Automatic annotation (TrEMBL), chains A, B:
Assigned keywords, A-Z: DNA-binding, Transcription, Transcription regulation
SUPFAM superfamilies reported in the protein's UniProt record: lambda repressor-like DNA-binding domains, Periplasmic binding protein-like I
A GO MF term: DNA binding
Organism listed in the record: Isoptericola halotolerans
PROSITE patterns to which the protein is assigned, alphabetical: HTH_LACI_1 (PS00356), HTH_LACI_2 (PS50932)
A Pfam family per the record: Peripla_BP_1
InterPro entries (UniProt xref): HTH_LacI, Lambda_DNA-bd_dom_sf, Peripla_BP/Lac1_sug-bd_dom, Peripla_BP_I
Transcription recorded as keyword: yes
Official protein name in the record: DNA-binding LacI/PurR family transcriptional regulator
Keyword DNA-binding: yes
Amino acid sequence: MKPTMSDVARAAGVSAMTVSNALTGRRPVSPATRARVERAAADLGYELNLTARHLRAGRTDTVALVVPHFDHPYYGELAARMGRHLADQGRHLVVEQSGARREAELAAVAPARWQLYDGVLLSAVGTTPDDLAGLHTSVPLVLLGEQQMPARYDHVRMDNVAGARLATRHLLATGSRRVAIVGGADPDRDAGMRTARTLGWTMAHTDTGTAPAPELLVRTGPDLSAGRDAVRRLLSDGTDFDAVFAVTDTLAVGVLAALAEAGRRVPDDVQVVGFDNLASSGFTVPALTTVDPGHEQMAVETLRLLDQVVARAASGEADGRSSGPEHVTAPVRLVVRATTRSA
Amino acid sequence: MKPTMSDVARAAGVSAMTVSNALTGRRPVSPATRARVERAAADLGYELNLTARHLRAGRTDTVALVVPHFDHPYYGELAARMGRHLADQGRHLVVEQSGARREAELAAVAPARWQLYDGVLLSAVGTTPDDLAGLHTSVPLVLLGEQQMPARYDHVRMDNVAGARLATRHLLATGSRRVAIVGGADPDRDAGMRTARTLGWTMAHTDTGTAPAPELLVRTGPDLSAGRDAVRRLLSDGTDFDAVFAVTDTLAVGVLAALAEAGRRVPDDVQVVGFDNLASSGFTVPALTTVDPGHEQMAVETLRLLDQVVARAASGEADGRSSGPEHVTAPVRLVVRATTRSA
DNA sequence: CTGTTAGCGCTTTCAA
DNA sequence: TTGAAAGCGCTAACAG
């Protein structure tokens, strides 16, 4: 059997309480006692049991971040950034993967898990507002993502419409007239990221008194290959286009690959803009013009809200009115690189 | 106060034990009782406390994977793959980030955390074999990574030397004579991934009865920009080279960016090979030839070893001789794409 | 500075 | 089928 504090206490000839104090330093212990305790602990190979401490303390000093996929660079970068911030504050971050599945997202924020973590950041893509609104408690939960979300939770998002509008406007301002959107969505379907970015694309056209041709809207999957396939399709359909707004940088990489393979020059024949400003986006050939969604602001705001809601929960408030849930939209910014011409 | 099982029991007019049984289904409960319990639980907004269960059960059904950085695609893909496998088996994976720092890696496998997880997969890059060898217990731990590792733990790695040799041999076989290595290391320094891959590069030359010129070895950081900067330096130094072996695909992306910016054609003027076969590597311009390190085999082997060591720990064996630690090297494979000429 | 008591919330006995 | 008691390992709270 694994040795416990009592075992150490017996071996050192002290009480368990003293062992605890000696090991954690929470209360002063005489040097002699501390030495004896440490000796005994080492001899027995004693190891602290954190589950017991958590049960006792009711806190874990750990925050969980639930993302759809570990291997999507956007989420990897998000997790890394969050992890750095939390580590700076001496807290732990653990990341879980939901596979973008509704059940997995719900399981991750299920009541049962709420004692495991002091708070949960959920990057929701598979759940409906109703799913989340149905949760019957005030969990320390902050929502991230571009879906429609229930109003009762704090929520941080990026300004998708403004970003897409900015991107598309830049394409139109630099001489493009037929701007395809790769990864677009029907505006009347879901209210997710794609829909919002499609709306921005449409609005940019409206701004200049035009309207995009319907055949320029290409629906796709989320992966690199989807971006490539979309452009191949456009090309094989003979659709006329002189610019592509890819709704994510990931898709944009596929778009660039397809254009290169078809011998279309970027930006001379076709301009390209992405969205997300991934770390790798400055290193495509040519370097990708994209929309920065305000990564850092989102991270900072998210953690601020988390602290707020955790404090609210700690202070025993069931559904406190001290400060209602906030809904933050981070500001976007266009990053002009080499896949677009200068104005 | 949050309601507990006793609260539910009182409300339902039964014992806590019956609540537990009714809710978990571990033991049969009469339909009428179950209904009353469920009713009471719902009314009170009862939520299971997992920390208590874990303390009691001594297991968490959760495995932790500790990686240096969430935002390095190699680790993101590794985590995603592990997560999928474990989810298929009904177990949880949580991922932590060590920042590649020695203390963080040690903290992640510190005794204190071992009750939190049924097992830990450590992607070690910051620790020395001695650090890990010093751990004084038989933790369910499987090591991943290309460092030297202490023999007492299971360890899964890729065949770096063979892979680098394969890559370089391909470059030499397709007509290149001056093969630069970007991200190389002095063979007599640490025994990490870079050293191994540098060794493979050297061996490929030896295989053909030549030796690489020292100025073709470029030391770099790990990032995209490091790959770009390495090539810029090579170019500005006037070093003659007609191929680049980048020790990671990430560096290779930077290499391609720098070559494009300098107007060197790939593969006509300069051939390029990477290492890791990231998901995005098929979508560079041109598509990157690279070494696949056997991702899937590594994942499968890792989980096999983990199950083994967890079982060993569960069966109370202190340092069981039933089956010693295994050291597995996954086989590599060259993936030829468009940054190299065909033989 | 150190010890005693009690209990975090759940579940494994053992008994009815 | 249900219950009572005991305890997982740790640490507040209250002595001393």
